[in-house]
Amino acid sequence: MPAKRPPVPLSRERIIDAALHIADGQGLRRLTMRRLGDALQVEAMAIYHHLPRGKEALMDALAEHVTAIQVDPAPTWQETARQWCRAQREALREHPGVLALALTKPPKGATAIAIMEQTEQLTDAGLSDAAEAVRTLRAFVFGSVAVEVQQSGWADPERDTWTRRDARADADFERGMDAMLRGLGG
């Protein structure tokens, strides 16, 4: 008889991964502490050791997970902004179940730090009003992903499948991002 493997220790990262899996597969409404505990094979109360504020802390952690995007600076502010927009879009598209949190939770923790870094990178690369540019680009990226998820059928309970990748959405995003960057530089 093979030896029994010891259980995988519970960690904040495991909790967030399991919560993302539930939210992306079943929707945020179906994410309960009990369901999360079942997915992790622990009592729901064990989660509170890693997230003392419970569900509120979990929601904050999920929003932070998909919005604390960092990229290395590029030679121009436009290239840096473009990298950030694409990375943020991918993170949001990867986890449509927490898009509502990303749209409604105020930036704090790692997200606030990432926004400050983005602003500093654009300023250092020569953009005069980098804070305004970051706010504008965040609004564009979040809004475009919201429309994309809406059109994908992800949240439609009547659909069995949804479109994860759409070439038209990719082209629309790139065209919109180019227009935003031209406007911000002007």
**Low-pLDDT segments, ≥5 res:** none
Strand content: under 5%
Structural class: mainly alpha
Largest sheet: number of strands, sense, barrel closure: none
The second-level CATH architecture of the largest domain is: Orthogonal Bundle
Percent helix among the residues? 55-70%
Explain this structure:
By secondary structure, the chain is an all-alpha fold. It has helices at 12-26, 33-40, 44-47, 55-67, 77-94, 99-104, 110-124, 130-152, 167-185. α1 crosses α2, α1 (12-26) crosses α4 (55-67) and α8 (130-152) packs antiparallel against α9 (167-185). The relative contact order is 0.11. Keywords: DNA-binding, Transcription, Transcription regulation. It comes from Nonomuraea recticatena. Residues 32-51 bind DNA. It holds the Pfam family TetR_C_1.
